[in-house]
Design brief:
7% of the residues lie in helices and 41% in strands. The protein is built from one helix and eight strands; from the N terminus they run E-E-E-E-E-E-E-E-H.
Amino acid sequence: MSRSDFKYNKKRKHYAYLFKDLGALRKNLLLHSDPFTKKKWNRAQQSDFLKRHTKLFKHPNPNKKDSGVYYVENRIYVDEAKCFDKRIYKWCWNANDKRKIKRLKKGRRTR
């Protein structure tokens, strides 16, 4: 079943776009203000690599006044329904961002 909600993800400490129900699970994309996520891939060498996020044209919150740059993480998370806040935000994607989000929902990477 599909859905289109914006909620706060308490487990991951970010706002999330929920787009698919899988029983008690929800597929979601996280919103960020950082362009990269630093991940360690080899603990023995302590090597890091940067994971690049997809840049948004505008934040989905229509009341947001600042002109900051916001991003969507290129990974689809599957979390339980209890991990999300009860409040549903009445946000919407900008027309310039809808194609990017559609590609991310299908599992394709965008830059």
